[in-house]
Write a structure and sequence with these properties.
The complex is a heterodimer of chains A (378) and B (271). With 378 residues, chain A is of the alpha+beta class. Chain A folds into 3 domains: 4-105, Roll (PH-domain like); 107-137; 145-377, no CATH class. Chain A is 56% helix and 17% strand. Chain A has helices at 79-88, 94-130, 132-141, 145-161, 170-182, 214-219, 223-238, 241-260, 265-297, 303-318, 327-330, 335-347, 360-377; strands spanning 4-10, 19-26, 29-32, 38-41, 46-50, 56-65, 68-76, 165-166, 191-195, 202-205, 209-213. In chain A, α5 crosses α7 (223-238), α7 crosses α9 (265-297) and α10 (303-318) runs antiparallel to α12. Chain B has 271 residues and is α+β, with helices and mostly antiparallel strands. Chain B has one domain: Double-stranded beta-helix (4-Layer Sandwich). The longest helix of chain B has 21 residues, at 247-267. The chains are: A alpha+beta (378), B alpha+beta (271). Chain A binds chain B through residues 8, 10-12, 15-18, 48-54, 56, 58, 60, 71-73, 75, 107, 110-111, 114, 201-205, 233, 236, 241-242, 266, 269-270, 273, 326-327, 329-331, and chain B through 106-110, 113, 131, 134-136, 169, 171-174, 186-193, 216-220, 253, 256-257, 260, 263, 266-271.
């Protein structure tokens, strides 16, 4: 091995692509053969990293060519020539060459880092997608009960101030009795109330507030039907659905803004709607499922839940009902939903449930009086 | 690999085309859709890949096509072959205002890196590949992205870029700072890096962006005076200023938002 390596020699007066030369390190000097033969002292050579990929070793030096100083550069043509050049270079060039050797490692390390970060990000997104429910559960569980109570109180106090909340009477007693059975052992302090409103609806506010519209009690044929609705609403509170829906909404809003930017606000709003709507359906289904379990646990016939939807359907078909069925706008009594509840019921062990000991006609009858009472009280 | 040596003539000032004279049996390869006129006796065909004779089977041609696609060209190449017995002409036009530069690949060491989409036409045998930018900061901030074109061969390649083009030979160690995006092509021996513009004030108000592309010799570089990005920004600006009524789309937008709000109000009846 004579240490000779093929290289290209560049200089201002040479062609742009340089000229092919042979080079050898002899002692402390670099010998360049070819048409422009000359010798350079290693101490005069500086090492540069050049080329488009920053992977070319360039040995540079200055010489006087005629009168002016001329910049020269010498680059080994291929990997074999590079290896020879690196192997035979004198000790004087060693520190500079070490830097060249390290350059490749640094670059690949950067790419690994970038790839790793990207992969981690993708994994995190996939994981978040998979455990989205669990993530929201966790976030909701971070909210202290006092905050929930305040949220609920704010909702209900508006109604109470308007004087439309019925706090006592047989109807409230009935709701409280059934509700008490369904919420035995709960960590929340429940407040039951009836709203003097002819529409058929019921809602739950966080922290244990359940409000049933007068119209719903009048429409329900049995106390079990009321129990079915209550069981569903109670699960919204127990599972902190309001908080989760709020967080989900905020999450979707943030996501659509982040992904779509301000440019397509319309698309952003649509994405937000789709995201929140599907999540709200998930929550409704969960409330149905867990409500059914709560009914069974409380020893109340679970069929009431389905029966009430049937009652609503009949009401709707009859037409001309004075009470708008507001419940259906947020709780669509779709066939698939009824079918899902019925399937859950069918899976339960067959059992006869004791009827609720409530004089239902008295409860329904009392509402007219209540109304009169509250009107008189005002 | 042997190349078809071709004669050519570049016509026009700012909107140029190149007329290539093909000897009998010679071929030229161009981007599909760039043809302007051809003489009788020129057979035009389309080939998957870059039309270089090296690609033999379908998959290697497809692979070349995909590589071309990534570098901003078409999956296919248009091949013009002179099947007559006398020399014939093919004219290939540039798609945007600018200049066509013939680059003899032999004179730049057989390899040339150029801006994605800069390749216009070449003698048959020139390979068009991808030059992946391995340096992150140059890829992100250098103005040319991570993918550039690599032309390999020893014939003439026609490169096109918008604005006026200039060629510059850099001596070993000679360095040139270029606005990002103005770089059209460079020899592989040229070091391509980025450099911070220097002062915050200059970076913010100098109008040149935060970084310059830094080109260090030895080697030749080609620069363009008007990157397409800059041109389209100017055009878009004046197009937008030409008057923008709310328009039908704006009304549709308001209606959709209204419906969504309405639905929300209706839905908030119960929890």
């Amino acid at each position: 091995m004579n240490g000779r390596f093929a290289a290209r020699l560049y200089a201002p007066h040479l062609p742009s692509a340089g000229i092919a030369v042979d080079a050898t390190f002899v002692g402390n000097r670099l010998h360049v053969d070819g048409s422009d033969a000359h010798q350079v002292d290693a101490n005069a050579i500086t090492v540069h990293i050049g080329g488009f990929d920053h992977d070319q070793l360039q040995l540079c030096w200055t010489s006087t060519h005629g009168h002016a100083a001329v910049q020269w550069a010498l680059t080994p043509v291929d990997a074999a020539a590079l290896a020879t050049a690196l192997g035979t270079a004198p000790a004087a060039l060693e520190p500079a060459l070490r830097k060249f050797r390290r350059r490749g490692q640094r670059m690949s390390a950067k790419w690994w880092l970038l790839g790793g970060t990207a992969a981690t990000l993708v994994l995190a997104i996939v994981a978040a997608w998979w455990s989205y429910g669990a993530l929201l559960d966790w976030a909701a569980s971070r909210v202290p009960p006092e905050v929930e109570a305040k949220l609920g109180e704010a909702t209900v106090s508006e109604l109470r101030k308007a004087g439309r909340l019925i706090d006592k009477g047989p109807a409230v007693d009935a709701v409280t009795e059934i509700g008490g059975k369904l919420t035995a052992g709960s960590r929340y302090q429940y407040h039951w109330a009836v709203l003097d409103e002819a529409s058929i609806n019921a809602f739950a506010a966080p922290g244990g507030h359940v409000v049933v519209h007068r119209g719903l009690i009048e429409a329900a044929k049995t106390p079990e039907e009321l129990a079915g609705v209550l069981a569903h609403e109670v699960q919204h509170i127990e599972q902190r659905h309001t908080l989760k829906a709020m967080m989900n909404g905020v999450g979707w809003a943030a996501l659509s803004t982040a992904v779509l930017g301000d440019v397509s606000a319309m698309v952003g709003v649509l994405a937000y709607q789709v995201g929140t709507l599907s999540y709200s359906r998930d929550l409704e289904a969960e409330a149905d499922r867990l409500g059914l379990a709560a009914l069974v646990k409380a020893d109340i016939a679970p069929g009431g839940m389905v029966d009430f939807f049937r009652t609503l359907e009949q009401e709707g078909e009859k037409g001309g009902t004075a009470a708008p069925i507001a419940l259906l706008s947020s709780h669509p009594a779709t066939d698939s939903r009824i079918a899902a509840i019925e399937a859950d019921i069918a899976r339960l062990p067959v059992k006869t449930y004791p009827p609720l000991a409530i004089d239902w006609s008295a409860v329904q009858g009392s509402l007219g009086d209540d109304k009169a009472d509250s009107a008189a009280a005002e | 690999m042997t190349m078809d040596a071709i004669e050519y003539r570049i016509e026009g000032d700012d909107l140029q085309f190149v007329e290539i004279r093909l000897e009998p049996g010679q071929c030229a390869v161009a981007e599909p859709g760039a043809m302007m006129y051809i003489d009788d006796g020129i057979e035009m065909s389309t080939e998957l890949g870059d039309g270089s004779r090296r690609a033999s089977n379908f998959f290697s041609r497809l692979w070349r096509g995909v590589r071309r696609k990534f570098s901003g060209e078409s999956l296919f190449s248009a091949i013009f072959e002179n099947t007559a017995t006398t020399p014939r002409r093919v004219a290939i036009a540039a798609a945007s205002p600018g200049q066509i530069v013939p680059i003899d690949l032999r004179a730049v060491g057989g390899e040339l890196i150029c801006q994605a989409g800069a390749y216009l036409a070449a003698a048959r045998g020139v390979e068009i590949g991808v030059a992946l930018q391995k340096r992150l900061r140059v890829g992100f901030l250098g103005g040319e992205g991570f993918i550039m074109q690599k032309l390999t061969g020893d014939g003439i390649a026609f490169v096109h870029a918008s604005g006026a083009l200039t060629q510059m030979q850099l001596a070993p160690g000679q360095s040139l700072r270029v606005d990002t995006g103005c770089l059209v092509a460079l020899q592989t021996s040229v070091r391509y890096d980025i450099q911070y513009a220097g002062r915050v004030k200059t970076a913010l108000f100098g109008g040149e962006g935060l970084f310059f592309a830094q080109l260090t010799g030895p080697g030749t570089v080609w620069l363009q005076s008007m990157p397409l990005k800059r041109l389209s920004r100017t055009m878009l600006g004046s197009a937008m200023a030409a008057g923008r009524p709310a328009g039908a789309l704006g009304i549709v937008y308001v209606i959709v938002i209204g419906i969504i709000v309405l639905v929300n109000i209706l839905r908030s009846g119960g929890v």
